[in-house]
Amino acid sequence: MSASDNDAGGKDFSPEFVDALSEIVNIGMGRAANLLNQMVDVKVVLQVPTINMLNQNELEGTLGSFGSTDLFSVGMDLSGDLTGRAKLLFMPEGA
What we know:
By secondary structure, this protein is α+β, with helices and mostly antiparallel strands. It contains 2 helices and 4 strands. The chain has helices at 15-40, 56-64; strands spanning 7-8, 11-12, 72-78, 84-90. Strands 1-2 form a two-stranded antiparallel sheet.
């Protein structure tokens, strides 16, 4: 299921909401990439983020595409009007 399906857990998300969320994530990740570049002198190139609404089976399938390798993750809990958990996954060779 992708953002174009725009329904998750009974909540209907408009295309405008999904676009705004993508832009907010893009800005935040861009700032984080810039700071990482300054701290460790590594160039980080970002793509425009995609917003996907996945059920547990779809998430497990997505994670399975990494194969059997270990992954590094960075997570952050969100609270307030928008609640949830954000995770970034890195392959060992890219971490």
